[in-house]
Amino acid sequence: MKPADIEWGMLRGALIGLAIAAAVAGALVGSSYHFWESKDLAFKSADRDRRAAELEYRKLDELEQMVVTYYPMFQELERLGIIGEERRLNWTEALRDADAVFKLPSLTYSVSTQEPYQDQAEFPLVEGAYKLYASEMNLQMGLLHGEDFFRVLGKLEEDADGLFSVDSCRIERRRDTPGGWEETHLASECRLRWYTIQKPTEVGS
Question: What is the CATH topology of the domain spanning 88-198?
Answer without folding.
Answer: STM4215-like (3.30.2000)
